[in-house]
Amino acid sequence: MRVQLTAVGQKMPRWVADGYAEYAGRMPRELRLELREVQPGDRGRGGRPERAREVEGQRLLQAVPRDARIIALDGGGRAVDTPALAEAMRGWLHQGRDVALLVGGPDGLAPECLAAAQQQWSLSALTLPHMLVRVLVAEQLYRAWTILAGHPYHR
């Protein structure tokens, strides 16, 4: 199975790409972590943030693998700690169904993304930069997997 981190934004700084690649590369073959980037909506002169968020939402949902479980990463979602993430991961592995984690742009996720999600998770009560979320999610997925595997990374 695979977990697809589906995120708004392209052309990330090197430290983001390197950090994400470090943890994604540690994931086992049976639980691949893949990044799918979608182009941000137009927020330039005359661009409307609500319209940009709507366009981003459409692009995110189009990028979700067929029949995947959708989890929206949203500040209004339920806080999940690492042991709970590991238990969720156990369930994903048992089901064998792909998972798509949605990360919105600067204005968050479109209502359509939240409605399509089977779950909504909050990573933190803090406002996090969207590029940092990629690295954070990749590390936490790796950490959750190490819990399931009995690996000493998580202490």
Task: Produce the secondary structure layout.
Blueprint lengths: L1 E7 L5 H11 L7 E7 L10 H15 L5 E11 L2 H14 L3 E5 L7 H6 L2 E4 L7 H20 L6
Parallel strand pairs: 1-2, 1-4, 3-4, 3-5
Helix pairs in contact: 1-5, 3-5
Task: Kindly describe this structure.
By secondary structure, this protein is an alpha/beta fold. It has a single domain, classed as SPOUT methyltransferase, trefoil knot domain (Alpha/beta knot, 3-Layer(aba) Sandwich). It is 43% helix and 22% strand. Strands 2-1-4-3-5 form a 5-stranded parallel β-sheet. β3, α3 and β4 form a beta-alpha-beta unit. The chain starts with a strand and ends in a 6-residue tail after the last helix. 28% of the residues are buried.
Quick structural summary:
With 155 residues, the protein is α/β, with parallel strands linked by helices. It is 43% helix and 22% strand.
* Structure annotation, total helices: 5
Helix content: 40-55%
CATH class: Alpha Beta
Number of individual domains? 1
Query: What Rg is obtained from the alpha carbons, in whole angstroms?
Result: 15 Å
Low-confidence stretches: none
Largest beta-sheet details: 5 strands, parallel
Q: How many individual β-strands?
A: 5
Physical arrangement of strands within the biggest beta sheet: 2-1-4-3-5
Q: Which descriptors apply to this entry?
A:
single chain; 155 residues; alpha/beta; Alpha/beta knot; 5-stranded parallel sheet; 5 strands; 43% helix; globular
